Amino acid sequence: xxxxQTSGGRAALGARLRALRAxxxxxGVSLAAELRWVQSKVSRIETGRQVPTDLDIRAWGAxxxxxxxxxxxxxxxxxxxxxxxxxxxRRASDPxxxxxxxxxxxxxxxxxxxxxxxxGVVPGLLQTADYARVRLAEDVGSDRIPDEALEDxxxxxxxxxxxxxxxxxxxxxxxxxxxxxxxxxxxxxxxxQLDRLATLIGMxxxxxxxxxxxxxxxxxxxxxxVMFDDxxxxxxxxxxxxxxTPADANRFRGIFNRLSGIARHGEGAxxxxxxxxxxxxxxx
Length: 284
Description:
The protein is about 50% helix and about 10% strand. It contains twelve helices and seven strands. Strands 1-7-6-5-2-3-4 form a seven-stranded mixed beta sheet. Helix 1 packs antiparallel against helix 5 (about 70-80) and helix 6 (about 105-110) runs parallel beside helix 8. The radius of gyration is 21 Å and the shape is elongated. The model is unreliable at about 1-5 and about 90-100 (pLDDT under 50). This is Helix-turn-helix domain-containing protein. Pfam families: DUF5753, HTH_31. InterPro entries: Cro/C1-type_HTH, DUF5753, Lambda_DNA-bd_dom_sf.
């Protein structure tokens, strides 16, 4: 299924759901209140910018007095839609990727549980402004991010971090010790980044695990990924992918749990971070 076909399928499903809401004389706000969702979730589903889950479809059907046969048709439509991965490419002319797929900001806003594994870089939600600026500057001047877009993209990344202070959400991060040791930025920037990671340990809704060097890995850490509930995002140099099938969710949830199981958490993680900070030296 191509990107255009996937986008069209989301829009068609959203239009059917919107028609069911309108038939009952319900506004998007009232439906969101009935389902205890944020109103933006209703809007994104109806406009095809977010793929609903099976539970979302059933809840929508119950709230709009939809008969079982129609709900079954909608579930079949959803299964067809979710049989393919949904890739998107970063475009210099459209760094926000409007309309192609839900943004990271939107996914984070809706999720109640965020899981993030990284093998090479500090997770985006935990990056300091200086560290994030260095990361984004890698793409400046390329076909990924034009020069003038850097500060706007940095602002969006920092805005996304505000979800960390939402006590209704939980965040689980697992990184390899190499993330703490690899010098991808000036030493003074890395010092500030490591200090921030150490202070985040102890936040009630944030769990940071560090896999120490030398640990026996249960799976090969081929790449990092982020799970927003059951939606998975993977970034490569070529593109970013959004995976939303139940099979993908089960597979990546299992991988994350296995990696988290060998990580040091709490004070154990803090000690690894402080050791990295102590031994941080400028390159010769």
